[in-house]
Design a protein that fits this description.
Length: about 230
Amino acid sequence: MTDKQTLAQRNNLIRAAVMGANDGILSVSGIVIGVAGATTNSFAIFIAGFAGALAGTVSMAMGEYVSVHSQNDAQVKAEETQTQALKTDYATEFAFVQQKYMNQGISTDLAAQATSEMMAKDALGTTVRERYGFTLHHEVSAIGAAVASMIAFPLGSVLPMLAITLLPPHVRVPATAGAVLIALAFTGYAAAHLSGANERRATVRNVVAGIFTMIVTYLIGSLIGH
């Protein structure tokens, strides 16, 4: 396995773990705060949170597995398509790659030379990269992503569950909300950093989503409980 493949696998696992933890925090905090709006019974709140964590763990893991597996299947299909295209219409594929290089500001002659050299070295890899934007044989692990998510989701859910059940009734909702927002700020920043997105914007968006989720579920719980 090449270093590049190892990096891709590592990033895949980290991404799945961060997103799993984020969903665990957000989903379970919504559940336990919603139930806390309806009842002060700590055991009932804990059971609701535990059930949500269990269901979310399975759902998140299966979602990661299906998503990554589908991505890998699409890459395999693209490879098959390009293999056939090179056999039946090599000239068209050559012209496509050359045009891509010319669109980047490379002169016609230099683009033709670069295309000729690249195609001679690895025609399939070159056309797949230029047409579909990925490198051959760098598929990431669907099972690895599922396992990372399966571990991270319940770990993320532990924070709101412990806070809401162990703190005194008169402070547990605001204290839990505060702890959850700090955790969501961290996971939002981490997810953005890994994906190359705007970190500040992603952090604020994640925190706002958490605030909205907790307010809505608490209000609904309060209406049902009273």
